[in-house]
Amino acid sequence: MRLPRRRSSEDAPSDPWRVPDPPVVGKPLSLQVTDLVRRLSGPEQAERQGDGDHWPNAEPTGRTTRIRQIGQLTAALAQNARSAGVRAVTGGRWLTDLVEEMAPHVVVRDLPTLEKTYGCRGDALAEAVVRSASRTTAAIGAAAGALAAAELAAPPAYLGAPVQLAAETLSVVAVELRMLGELHEVYGLALTGSSRDRATALLTTWVRRRALEAGAGSLLLGAAARRELRKRVLKRLGGSVTTLAPFLAGAVAGAEVNRRETRKLGESVAKDLRGRAQRFFPPARVIDAELLPGQGGSPA
Question: Distance (Å, rounded) from C-alpha 84 to C-alpha 297?
């Protein structure tokens, strides 16, 4: 597999599809990648009210903005892939390592913030969290497909396709990890420990597709569990190939695949968490699905 060459000004497509170089800032490339993933994986702009500390300098998350952000992330990852080497990239270790490195930086909103944002609680709040994450991953898939449709008109762009798929996959995984962390908050089973401990628990939940019993997060520390994570990451990467369909069909297909997979994951884990909450808490403490006082429901 050949890694993409750096795009010259002659290769660059015209606005608004132009893929800019990653921002030149005084921080390591890994931190640039993490920052771009955070911006891409944050909730929709309408849901960011009051979350300024979590998503500083948040931009409107329209398609054009997401296309530009995916382009920036792709350019940053291309540099990172060259450093990792062809063997690591083609074997999946490169992308898996990026997922592990990114996971501790995923921002998870706490229960009061979620209740304030969506205006509900309990099962209704869990549904709102899953719906929001599904919409975000769908928007990422649509933007990635639109960028691919514009770029694939130029043959040299085919060389960048694998890295662009990695950019989409990394962003989608970040959204799904945030969703899983917030579902734990909804059901009163918030993850504890250091950021690394919480990231390990989230990654294990993401790999196994079900809520974990206490202490199960440590399973990801072993070599066998890392192979399991790599297998799941590569499977998610394979799902992103739909964004490379000709013309804008990739945008439609990518959006639908991401939306469906994220919702399926969220509903599965929410079901497990609901069962655990009912076992751990007496009936009087089980949260209901009523709207909070003075709230009219979740934002559109």
Answer: 47
